[in-house]
């Protein structure tokens, strides 16, 4: 969905939970601060072209971790 370059998000603070929303048919992926229901970042529309999508997350920092919830 991107050129592989980092996307600056600004000072958001640290949210304990993120929501990732995927609308495959519209080609949209968005990230939200789940407790506050606030949009953090939405990628511009993209065409997935029938490709299988696989999530990839990069988390860094001391004690950082990712837990996927249904």
UniProtKB/TrEMBL annotation:
It comes from the Eukaryota. Residues 1-70 form the B30.2/SPRY domain. InterPro entries: B30.2/SPRY, B30.2/SPRY_sf, ConA-like_dom_sf. This is TRI15 protein.
